């Protein structure tokens, strides 16, 4: 077997090991809500959407939130919090891009809103550092 073929086979076999890296690390506590805006720079018209507005947001609307993934609820479901409240987010492993975040790490999540009122949740398509 030549070197190129062997390398291609090894690359295909090893890519599955990297698919499960990253996610949420439990056991840490996020900072108090009143401290979340400390150090935030920018104008009010370019600020992210607060969680409190998600409950009345239009179905399928795309939003970006900044805050903390507080805890894993189950599967790909997490509780997300900012200074205005909490919301449930559905974040597949691929959205973490191999990075691991704890409740102390501020993150920026983007995705589509589904549900109304207390059943509103966010299907995340992207997780980044702010």
Automatic annotation (TrEMBL):
Residues 1-19 form the signal peptide. It comes from the Bacteria. Residues 21-47 are annotated as: Disordered. Residues 34-44 have a biased composition (Basic and acidic residues). Transmembrane segments: none annotated. Keywords: Signal. PANTHER family: PERIPLASMIC PROTEIN, PROTEIN YGIW. This is Periplasmic protein. The lineage of its organism: Bacteria, Pseudomonadati, Pseudomonadota, Gammaproteobacteria, Enterobacterales.
